[in-house]
UniProtKB/TrEMBL annotation:
The keyword Isomerase applies. Its cofactor is NAD(+). This is UDP-glucose 4-epimerase. Signal peptide: none annotated. GO terms for biological process: galactose catabolic process via UDP-galactose, Leloir pathway. It catalyses: UDP-alpha-D-glucose = UDP-alpha-D-galactose. It comes from the Bacteria. InterPro entries: Epimerase_deHydtase, NAD(P)-bd_dom_sf, UDP_G4E. Its EC number is 5.1.3.2.
Length: 324
């Protein structure tokens, strides 16, 4: 397949490009590098441009006949979305709309879309399956839910076929050490702990120890980036026989508290990790754990690296010698 990877210079998108190329697919990346890295663009062709540039998108689709599109490009920081909601709706909803309009105009039907656990809000039950009600707690979560609605409606109208994948906590890095997580500023727990262990950032604040969980800290379901990317490949195949709109939750179904993550990090890397206790971070649900039974049964998805220790070991390899 010839696959357009929008946002392919970012953390998840760059891992996706490596996987696609490794499986013999032709890759074209479209990215404005607002948070992505030029150095991560090692697989496929790169076209620099923004989703807000309709002419650039049109030229891209005129030049290449894509069999499918994977849409990773978005603004992703939950806290920032509360401060700058218009930017988030513009990029995550408006940008996606521009892409879909171009796809429709050029007759490209197949789309895999990056969604998030943030569409569910505070869990009403756990693990969270696809029937769980949607009640986002942030403009970021709302923007992704709105984009999903757009996909659902466009699919119902017969314009395209789409799979939305709701990632829980994406973590880890390319086991070969060629790619890794390099958000700037970094807000995610595992890379922050590794950077703190290396003395690159101040001690990590543990956001709240009074949650209704086993040890009082928040519980999350961490999923290896490579397992996540495999699910996108499976979703592309699924779309061949399953037109319309579908959505799948992606996690390992196992929760780790912040304190448990800390302990596994310290044990895996053999170093102490400086942390301080702090207050809760606004908008953090106590527990987010995925049920991925639907992805397993419908997509045939089977995570190969479910252990937190493996996730941390691959991330640690990258952080000790980051390529960018
Ligand atoms: N990282 C996570 O834990 C996580 C969890 C759930 C969902 N997601 C979703 O996965 C996707 C990828 O996340 P990531 O962690 O790789 O983020 P990232 O910031 O590393 O990557 C996003 C990429 O999109 C590009 N981009 C942003 N706006 C663009 C625009 N208007 N035009 C062109 N390119 C644009 C950026 O330059 C960047 O390369 C996002 O949609 C995010 O919401 C991520
Ligand atoms: O410095 C930090 C950073 C995080 N945490 C805690 O560690 C856990 C994981 O936090 P991350 O910021 O790594 O991840 P989130 O669970 O907040 O966010 C993830 O899930 C969200 C959906 O809820 C979004 O999709 C987001 O993009 C994705 O990274 C949370 O309990 C958080 O409170 C800390 O204690 N200290």
């Amino acid at each position: 397949m010839r696959v357009l990877v929008v946002g392919g210079a970012g953390y998840i998108g760059s891992h996706m490009c490596k996987l696609l190329a490794g499986r013999g697919h032709e890759v074209v990346v479209f990215d404005n590098l607002v948070t992505g890295h030029r150095e991560a663009l090692r697989w496929g062709r790169f076209v620099e441009g923004s989703l807000h540039d309709a002419a650039a998108l049109d030229a891209l689709f005129t030049q290449h006949r894509f069999d499918a599109v994977i849409q990773f490009a978005a603004s992703i920081a939950v806290g920032e979305s509360v401060r700058e909601p218009l930017d988030y709706y513009r990029n995550n909803v408006g940008g996606t709309l521009e892409l879909l309009t171009t796809m429709k105009r050029h007759g490209v039907r197949r789309l895999v879309f990056s969604s998030t656990a943030a569409i569910f809000g505070t869990p009403q039950y756990s693990p969270i399956d696809e029937n769980h009600p949607h009640a986002p707690l942030s403009p970021y979560g709302h923007s992704k839910l709105m984009a999903e609605q757009v996909l659902r409606d466009a699919a119902a109208a017969g314009h395209l076929d789409a799979v939305a994948l709701r990632y829980f906590n994406a973590a880890g890095a390319d086991p070969e050490g060629e790619l890794g997580e390099a958000h700037d500023p970094e807000t995610h727990l595992i890379p922050l702990l590794l950077k703190a262990a290396l003395g690159q950032v101040p001690p990590v604040t543990v956001f709240g120890s009074d949650y209704d969980t086993e040890d009082g800290t928040c519980v999350r379901d961490y999923i290896h980036i490579c397992d996540l990317c495999e699910a996108h490949l499976l979703a592309l195949s699924y779309l061949q026989d399953n037109p319309g709109f579908s959505a799948f939750n992606l996690g390992n179904g196992k929760g780790y508290s912040v304190k448990q993550v800390l302990a596994v990090v310290a044990q895996t890397i053999g170093r102490a990790v400086p942390t301080v206790m702090g207050p809760r971070r606004a908008g953090d649900p106590a527990r987010l754990i995925a049920s991925s039974e639907l992805a397993r049964s419908k997509l045939g998805w089977q995570p190969k690296m479910p252990e937190l220790e493996t996730i941390i070991r691959t991330a640690w390899r990258w952080h000790q010698a980051p390529g960018f």
